[in-house]
Amino acid sequence: MRTMTLSAMEFIRRFLQHTLPSGLMKVRYYGFMHACSGVSADKVRAAVELMQGFDVSDPVVTDAIETCTALTCPKCGGKLLYRYSVLPHQMNPPPHAKQIIKEQSRQNE
Ligand SMILES: [Zn+2]
Predict the structure, then answer these.
(1) CA 20 to centroid of ligand 1, rounded, Å
(2) Residue 79: beta bridge partners?
(3) What CA–CA distance (Å, rounded) separates 103 from 89?
(4) What is the pTM of this model?
């Protein structure tokens, strides 16, 4: 263990680095999820099957991705192109997105 003397402001700054904004939850990896855990997936599967009384099966891989069709415009039926995502914390779109929106609305006039 290391001991050090800090000013009050430095202590508060370091302390607040470990405080999450409200609404966020820290994800911790422990137990069988920890990277250093030596427990195999088969052992976890067997334990779940024993405790819960049902078989744990691997997810079935299908070719669903190949059968997906492109999204189409509800007005003209044209193929929609992915340009960007707006995440909830980005509700004010970035300048380049505003430019794209402006160009598209000009084309649709
Ligand atoms: Zn359209």
Answers:
(1) 43
(2) 72
(3) 24
(4) 0.30
